[in-house]
Amino acid sequence: MQTTALMPSPRFASAACLALSLCPAACSSSFPAPPPPVAPCSDGPCLKPSHVPLVDSLLAQLTLEEKLLLVAGTGFDTRGVERLGIPKLSMTDGPVGVRNGAATAFPAPVALAASFDPELVQRVGAALGRETRAKGKSVLLAPCVNLQRTPQGGRNFESFGEDPWLASRIATSYIRGVQSEGVAATVKHFAINNQETERMTVSVEVSERALHELYFPAFKAAVQEAGVLAVMCSYNRIGGTYACEHPGLLGDTLKQRWGFEGLVMSDWGATHSTAAAASAGLDLEMPTGEYFSVEKLHSALDDHSLNLQRLDDMVRRQLRVLHGLHLLPGQTPSRLSPAQVDPPEHRAINRQASREGLVLLKNTGSLLPLEAKQLKRVAVIGPRAAYVEGGGGSALVKPTYRVSPLDGLREALGSSVVVDYAPGEFSAEHLDLVPATALAPPGKPTEQGLLAQYYTGIDFSGTSVKSELVSSLDWRWDLGSPDGLPADQWSIRFTGTLTAPTTGRYILGLNSDDGSRLWLDGKLLVDNWGGHPMTLKTAEVELKAGVPHELRIDYYETILGAGLSFGWQRIDNNLLDQARKAARSADASIIVVGDTEREESEGIDRSSLLLPGNQEALLQAVLAENPRTIVVVATGAPVLMGAWLPKAPAVIQSWFGGQEFGHALADVLLGTVSPSGKLPVTLPKRWEDCPAFDNFPGSGGSVRYDEELLMGYRFFDTRKVEPEYPFGFGLTYSRFEISDFSVLPSDTEGNVSVSCSLRNAGSKRAAEVLQVYVHDAQSDRHRPEQELKAFARQELEAGESKRVTLRLAPSAFARYDLASHDFVRGAGAYEVRLGTSSRELPHRSTLRFP
Ligand code: BGC
User: More exposed terminus of the chain, fewer Cβ within 10 Å: N or C?
Assistant: First the structure.
């Protein structure tokens, strides 16, 4: 049995020191001095920015007051300067789809990473760019390139997995796509933002080497390869200093070392100071100017804790982004493709992306693909089968339509196959809206609906500004508000009665952004109070048919998004039996299990790695009834499969598949296309087997990354821990053969060529992802067993062969050196390994570097 009591290696015992030592200048002592109050660039330009004459001329025309107003947001926009024709930057979230009303909901980013298909991701990025423009926005707050350090991470679904090389390739394609459409991408959250527990304050203690080898590469590639226009600094602290006021992170690493010339904006509410943050390298405070207010900036200038030169730099960076988007006065607007939300071509890209993200983990006896002609009756089971789930928080997208697995299968199978649906367990997420017929205003039992009283302010004081009858409660105001109320700081009280049509036990739920509360007969039943994104809280209650209960719901909104729905559902105790019955009488059953925005969301980490609710028991019951059961796991991060996996003949990890999920799943289940996705993250057998087991979520306000360089497969492969499924793994319906493997030593530029012949030896068109890992045999004993350094997705017809060459740049062999604070390639032997997952690398060749 593998124990995971990882001792920090002596070399990294002073991780906190290294974490603070992002700035080489501060590295001389073992405990460097706290960051200086003024950036190292105070007496000279921070970086040598490319001077754009138009930007310089506009900067010269701005008054001090105008400059001060430009460096803080107004919610999701900057202010612009009308007098000079400088437009606002108008922002919207990312990364799954474009927020602010309905838009195409693409597969979660982790699914995009599972495609191992940068070219496809670039097309997704371009579609996102077009939809951003269609909504009148110029900045997309995406992609998120924080790695999946632990399976619990609430935002794992937003990430590109656990490997820096894969994340870099996918991120740069995503950014190129978005920016090709005249929209600025914002790579986030810089940096080391890997957990939601104490997300606003937690201090990450991480070594300098791990930063540069694991946590930075995707950001660096975004800057240096994709030319990303904006970077969002994160909520967390690093070695005790908030990321958005960390001079080593923002000033030294991002701007000086990597040469970033664009805009650094804070995450929403991640700014904690004025002069320290501005001097460290923060250019724009979002959402509003709490610290970058005109007043506070003035006093920082007055007491010289901030200098004018730095203020100019902050403004110049914003102007440079506008210039990059061709939005400044006098610029010829770029010629761009028409901007639309949800045009047919986005549907096609989305379906392909959803399909390519599906990872076939198991297919005993070639149960898949299902032969449609041989099916008479199919059972579609599970609480996630009749809906399309996505992770929550700022990445939650309102889709323009949803094709659930049930919809997709019904459509693909047609009327000749009976499709039975059984949810199998109650799903609190999808409560029905309480209809007007169950509601009556106070004192008017024969009427329908509730009395709504609207207040400015959030404490229901004074008289209401208006009142009206509403039939049911289901609103998403987004950044708006009901007529007659200000944009923020308002509240509504709903009163009347609630009467159930049928006697039984009911779930009542309030889903709201921000707070809501529900009283029944004077008793507080649902308490969803507090400032938060859309959050559902429920309570159970026994209701008798026809008996009215006095109802009161209070709702308030403070800032940013606003929404409220009031739902219910009668609890049906026979759901498990119905699922058993459906499975028993079917030729094949497809059970879709997984998480929802309740388990995976910004603001919370997952509380368990098991499937939530009763889904484990449901799986066991269905698998016992029908040996031809296909399990589809719709989560953004690994779940533990051990309890049911041995009994499941076929398993697909589908992630959150976006609004085309049902079509994509049917395509793969019925063999219209072969699955080709590969795991962008290791699936562990047990949480105790994971590298961060001893150090998550930290204690005393900080979390130590003592696993060092051994994240994900780097740990499993180095420590020889058996995963459930390894990184890079995924089956297809065909069979591939690799032969004639060769490694050609460096060309004049130091690139190594890895070649092989790939043959689709099966009978179906399919894709394989060739993966190249480098093993450092000699130069550095701290190095992980192997690291992914190149990959290539190849789609071949049945019987087709192809010669494929992958390139390893000199950096593929380099490691971060603490003495020079740079990457170096040590002398000695390196093994180049080629195969189809981190555990299937049969083709090996050794290279020696002097
Ligand atoms: C999230 C960001 C997001 C921002 C704006 C923050 O809470 O961390 O990822 O872009 O809100 O919605």
Answer: C
